[in-house]
């Protein structure tokens, strides 16, 4: 039997990915060089949950070894084994005696107690119930084949192209030129391959400029690349030396900002490709960034803080401190007045530039929050007559909808059973698309919080890494671990009054 550190590192890397700790997995993979090891080539042969399976089998072996006596008999022990604490055997007779004492104690306590009225709990609670779903029909689905998992995908503004990336591969599809096979599958030869070169082991992020004419990708090699819709590499921006987590365009397409593991944000001139400013203040890797105006933006970090920057200012102009664990995401509302943040401390918070303390501390999730999305409603949106909502997706398998006016949770969307990783509102704010770590892409009605339609590309071991609603609202794109991007047709009326599956 052989056991190498590469194999152990790879199992840990896979466990972090499967458990939803993607930032930790990314950092661990970078430091251990796991993506360059021979073990990474066996990824498809390693079953999901392999590390847990080996640990469970190891515990069973240790249990058998501990309880096996010289005469071949087993010690009748009732104490379970633990990975963390020393094992102390307890016999059945002692356990039985303890149970009888506990039963007597509870009986006496019940006899001594007096009855009292208890007010009903009026909180919105998460109760996981199996979803009864209408599935997308075959003629509503177009599968875009890829040669690696698809971790990010996005439509451009004119909705002429879809970009998708994952692993070391990024591709462009011209939507009007797609030819589907009988199985509604579009082969890779109908896409434009964006060649990132041999040094880029993973494309970590992509985003379109607002005009939809230029695509940016962030790489594991620390390079920001700009591409035309024809797939031509326009510029390479080289200031970071470690993997990039996010790249965003400002509101007039004149600048870009990128954030990296190197603890910095870099502002770029989108025309010349020159670095305008390097923002250094965070004490740990940066995880996300979002522009507030043409010249100001917010960054968040593993150091648990949020910093607001103005282009040209060497120091942050505002700091938000309140989270107790790493902050995964930040996002300004449509009016750019409120900033939402989601953290591994299980809370989301809503902030205002008028204060350093959060306006609302949104508590209720029981695990970390990775994705947050504002509804396209309220002041500054295309639906100003509708109230502003915030959606939060958590590793506790739920989505919560919060009313921003009072910070109250108004609905909990349940039934995914696995970590919810990605969200996208429809442009009219009537629906919300979600993706989970069981391969389920689901569309929810904002009228009543019901699940109205769903799709699973392979099986429950698949993962939906990204969902993206098209600008005019008639399509949804989803990226799957199972080597595909899938485009769904959601024409007006197709999501209303759907029958549910039995």
UniProtKB/TrEMBL annotation:
Keywords: Nucleus, Repeat, Transcription, Transcription regulation, WD repeat
Cellular component terms (Gene Ontology): histone deacetylase complex
One Pfam family this sequence matches: LisH
UniProt WD repeat ranges: 203-228, 237-278, 279-319, 320-361, 362-412, 413-454
Region described as Disordered: 94-123
Record-level GO BP terms: regulation of transcription by RNA polymerase II
Basic and acidic residues composition-biased segments: 99-113
Cited InterPro entries: Ebi-like, LisH, WD40/YVTN_repeat-like_dom_sf, WD40_PAC1, WD40_repeat_CS, WD40_repeat_dom_sf, WD40_rpt
Intracellular or extracellular location(s): Nucleus
Molecular functions (GO terms): transcription corepressor activity
PANTHER family (alphabetical): F-BOX-LIKE_WD REPEAT-CONTAINING PROTEIN EBI, WD40 REPEAT PROTEIN
Protein name, per record: Tbl1xr1 protein
């Amino acid at each position: 039997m052989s056991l190498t550190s590469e194999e152990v590192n790879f199992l840990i890397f896979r466990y972090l990915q499967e458990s939803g700790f993607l930032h930790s997995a990314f950092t661990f993979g970078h430091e251990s060089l796991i993506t360059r090891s021979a073990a990474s080539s066996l990824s498809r042969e390693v079953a999901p949950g392999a590390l847990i399976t080996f640990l469970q089998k190891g515990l069973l072996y240790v249990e058998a070894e501990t309880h096996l006596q010289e005469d071949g008999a087993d010690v009748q022990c009732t104490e379970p084994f633990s990975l963390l604490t020393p094992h102390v055997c307890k016999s059945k007779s002692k356990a039985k005696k303890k149970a009888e004492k506990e039963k007597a104690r509870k009986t006496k306590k019940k006899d001594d107690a007096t009855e009292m009225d208890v007010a009903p709990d009026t909180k919105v609670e998460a109760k996981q119930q199996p979803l009864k779903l209408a599935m997308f029909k075959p003629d509503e689905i177009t599968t875009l084949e890829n040669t690696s998992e698809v971790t990010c995908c996005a439509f451009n503004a004119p909705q002429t192209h879809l970009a998708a990336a994952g692993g070391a591969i990024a591709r462009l599809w011209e939507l009007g030129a797609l030819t589907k096979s009988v199985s509604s599958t579009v082969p890779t030869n109908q896409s434009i391959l964006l060649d990132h070169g041999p040094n880029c082991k993973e494309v970590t992020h992509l985003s379109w400029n607002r005009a939809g004419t230029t695509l940016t990708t962030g790489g594991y090699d620390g390079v920001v690349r700009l591409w035309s819709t024809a797939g031509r590499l326009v510029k390479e921006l080289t200031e970071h030396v470690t993997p990039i987590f996010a790249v965003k365009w400002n509101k007039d397409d004149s600048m870009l900002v990128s954030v990296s593991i190197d603890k910095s944000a870099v502002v770029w001139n989108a025309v010349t490709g020159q670095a305008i400013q390097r923002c250094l203040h965070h004490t740990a890797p940066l995880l996300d960034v979002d522009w507030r105006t043409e010249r100001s933006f917010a960054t968040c970090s593993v150091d648990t803080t949020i910093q607001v920057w103005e282009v040209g200012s060497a120091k942050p102009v505002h700091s938000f401190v309140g989270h107790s664990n790493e902050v995964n995401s930040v996002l300004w509302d449509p009016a750019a007045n409120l900033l939402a943040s989601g953290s591994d401390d299980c809370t989301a918070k809503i902030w205002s530039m008028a204060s350093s303390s959060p306006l609302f501390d949104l508590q209720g999730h029981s695990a970390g929050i990775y994705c947050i999305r504002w509804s396209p409603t309220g002041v500054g949106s295309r639906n100003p007559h509708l109230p502003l909502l915030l959606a939060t997706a958590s590793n506790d398998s739920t989505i919560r909808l919060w009313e921003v006016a009072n910070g109250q949770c108004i609905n909990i969307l349940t039934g995914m059973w696995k970590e919810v990783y990605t969200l996208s509102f429809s442009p009219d704010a009537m629906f919300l698309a979600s993706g989970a770590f069981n391969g389920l892409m689901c569309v929810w009605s904002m009228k009543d919080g019901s699940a109205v339609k769903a799709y699973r590309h392979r099986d429950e071991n698949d993962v939906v890494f990204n969902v993206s609603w098209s600008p005019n609202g008639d399509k949804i794109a989803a990226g799957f671990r199972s080597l595909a991007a899938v485009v769904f047709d959601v024409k007006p009326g197709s999501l209303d009054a759907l029958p549910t599956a039995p």
